[in-house]
Design a protein that fits this description.
alpha/beta, D-Maltodextrin-Binding Protein, domain 2, 5-stranded mixed sheet, 15% strand
Amino acid sequence: MLAFNVYNFVTTADDTTTEVLANSGIYPDVMASLATDLNFTEVKVIPSDRKFGGINPDGSWNGVIRMLMDGDIDVGICGHTVTQARSRVVDYSVPLAQDAATLVAPLASGAETNFWVYTDIFPKETWAVAIILIIRTNK
């Protein structure tokens, strides 16, 4: 099952329904392409609280992140920022575009938190060259 954040990609009947009437844009198109290529059926839902996924005052999660953690959905598409707190409970894809939206999935049981999630956007060779250039230019 696939969850969209309501503000980004979908049209609903009103502000209270979680039924997706229409969707458009690059991210729904990517998911439709994946569904065709990988032979699965998309079921689109919206979080009942209509939130991306943040930490509630009691320490629990809400929105798409909560749905992933509970196993209610398999994939979420949201325009939220990759944070260390979120990366402790879900796994991110490489960004799909120059945008904050990414695919997220439940963190595998027993998986360790990736504190280097922000550096994964570039290969190690790129970071090595950048560090060498910084050292050389500071001499």
